[in-house]
Amino acid sequence: MKRKSAEIIAVLLLVVIVATVLVACVNTDLSGYAYPEGLEEALASYDFSRAQGSDVRVASFNMLVHMESWGGTPVPPRAKTFLKVLDEVKPDVIAAQEMSSDWYKVLGENMGDEYVILEPKIDVLNKNKTPIVYNTDTLLLIESGYTAYSVGDENGCRAVTWGLFTVKSTGKYVIVTSTHLDLIRNGKEEKELEIMNKQADELLSKINELYDRYACNVIACGDYNSMERGDVEDNSGKVQGVYAAEQIYAKLAAELTDVKYKEGLCILNSDENKKFAPTWDHIFLKGGANAEKFFILDNNVFEQMSDHYMIFADFTL
Hints:
single chain, six-stranded mixed beta sheet, globular
């Protein structure tokens, strides 16, 4: 028994050492990378000025892991673009998804002290791939937490991370959550939908708990792997059908407000045809806050940063 325990410990130590070496090998010097052609022009085409009277700017972004098996690509050149976007957009909060170990390493060396990552670790071996990044110049962190879903993939994604903040300029409180639900896979439609339903229930329970405990607005962001509709083309021009998991979106939208569909909302994006196309990423709201501006970075140049577009909104709390 003792020998078996020693072997298990040895294997775990080896895993830690290998993981540490692999992360250490990531190039964190971004000076040798160039911005994608057209990036600065694309950024200049947006009016990033804040909505008048708004209190907080909240973004949601699936950053795309570096692992090739997930469809990822090397982080450093994409991180250089991300940091440029960050400097232009200046969000107060980013609800991130798929922030893998390479992202942590590169951003840790290049993001500076202005932004801090919340709940970065699940345990000594695993990174939280669904963290929150916040601007310390504009927000004061009061409390934060991480809750893994009881079902679903065990890859650091299937969880909800949250932070309670005070807006320094106004003294108002706001909670932001970040999540990344499972997805419907070919041949496992019924089982995956059951898992996603359970995760959505647990997410809503956590949002309601936070809303009741702190009595302030909850802005719930994330890659929900569910679309508004599955029978029309999404941003990629594809009809997702059953894989859109529109039942999950409907469940969430029945209890929360999808701020993109607020009447009279100012939406800024590059392609009018994509403005209301079904998407996987959403910014929901529980509470009486008001979304004033909604941005979708849908210019083709941003596809070199991730396979998801960054979305963000300005809120009056």
